[in-house]
Amino acid sequence: MDRHAARLNRVLLVLTGLLLAAAGGAGLALGLRAFGSARAHQPVLSGQTRHFATAHGWYWPVVAALAVLLAIIGIAWLLAQGRSDRIGGVVLDEDEHTGRTIVPAGTVATALQDDIERVPGVHAARVRLSGKPSAPAVRVNVAYDRRADLLELRDRIRDSAFARLRHTLELERVPAVVRLRLVTGDERRTVE
Amino acid sequence: MTTHAGRWPASRTSASAQASAGKGTAAARAARSAFRPRRIVTSLVAAVLLTAAGTITAIEVVSGVAGHPARLVPYTRVADWMRHTSWTHWGVLAISAGLVLVGLWFLLAGLIPGRPRVVPLRGDDRDLAMAVTRGGFRNALAAAAEDVQDASRAQVTLRRHRVKVYVHCPAHAVDAVSEQVRRSVAGRLEEIRPLARYKVVVKPLTRKG
């Protein structure tokens, strides 16, 4: 659920896309006689290529190494999709005299959740902490029902819940992403 | 219809706040990028392809060099076919075209930012990115339309930059109601402050008979 994976995805997608499009494009160009009719009528696997492979001892090891590299990139990419950047706690203050105080992420999340759930019309709030323990970020999913007013909900979350969170954590900035989700949205039309 | 008993007065959205929270600000950029699609499905497909291709090639080559070919793929048959097929063969062309298409798919998925599935809201705080689901957004706008006297059963559809409001009203008051609904919905838009600008179009529906 983190934006880090999103950036990685985009970069790797562009690179993979370029590679595939270039390979396919080269094949099409050859077949459509862009490099001359003689070249187009040569077999895909020409004697020249085979000769090159047998004449150079490094050919197959290099191919194998590239293949292993590709496989490793692919596996790392797959693993990155499942990785989460959740943190277990927040470092409250750190100085030489008092040492460090760590608040468990669950405590922080529950406090913020309770604050948000106190807003009228809010069904449930789910809070997750990510980032670094010294600079946490918050991700909130708020389920509200038709009794809630979108504007009030928004203002109260911003002005009370998050202000309190920043105050409690003694942090000036706590980047937050909030998703407001209407539950029982269709009820309004049928109940009337 | 008691959905918005405690709503703030419209004057709360001051002109200065509107100006300071324009489209190009850090807050707007943060809100937009926080809800962009992450291209997970396409990435999974690409990653699986990459892993499979790399692994199979590596196993084939290493086992072949070692003298005990693994034969995960019918290598001799493929090599044979390639030795007797020219680049102009339709099969080769089709494979090349397929590669180009898949490559373009990945390329576009990586380059195009994509539209969020939710409606990002404009804020003055770049540390707080908020979004509401499309259903919630439509619901709030439909409620604003139904606030108008004589307007009922409002339905809202969302386009990229257009909000279309279908609303039922008595035949004699079509023009007045349409205008009021348009104003009411536009007013609510001002208050909700979505990141994108929307034009409000009202489609009045009169009851037959």
Question: Could you explain the architecture of this structure?
Answer:
- The complex is a heterodimer of chains A (about 190) and B (about 210).
- Chain A has two domains: about 5-80, no CATH class; about 90-190, 2-Layer Sandwich (Alpha-Beta Plaits).
- In chain A, about 55% of the residues lie in helices and about 20% in strands.
- Chain A has helices spanning about 5-30, 35-40, 45-55, 60-80, 105-115, 150-170, 185-190; strands spanning about 90-95, 100-105, 120-130, 135-145, 175-180.
- In chain A, helix 6 links the parallel strand 4 (about 135-145) and strand 5.
- In chain A, helix 5 packs antiparallel against helix 6.
- The model of chain A is unreliable at about 185-190 (pLDDT under 50).
- Chain B folds into two domains: about 40-110, no CATH class; about 120-205, Alpha-Beta Plaits.
- Chain B has seven helices and five strands.
- In chain B, strand 3 (about 150-160) and strand 4 (about 160-170) form a beta hairpin.
- In chain B, helix 6 (about 135-145) packs across helix 7.
- Chain B is elongated.
- The model of chain B is unreliable at about 1-20 (pLDDT under 50).
- At the A-B interface, helix 1, helix 4, helix 6 and strand 5 of A face helix 2, helix 3, helix 4, helix 5 and strand 2 of B.
- Strand 5 of chain A pairs parallel with strand 2 (about 130-135) of chain B, so a sheet runs across the interface.
- Chain A: Keywords: Membrane, Transmembrane, Transmembrane helix.
- Chain A: It comes from Actinomadura logoneensis.
- Chain A: This is Alkaline shock response membrane anchor protein AmaP.
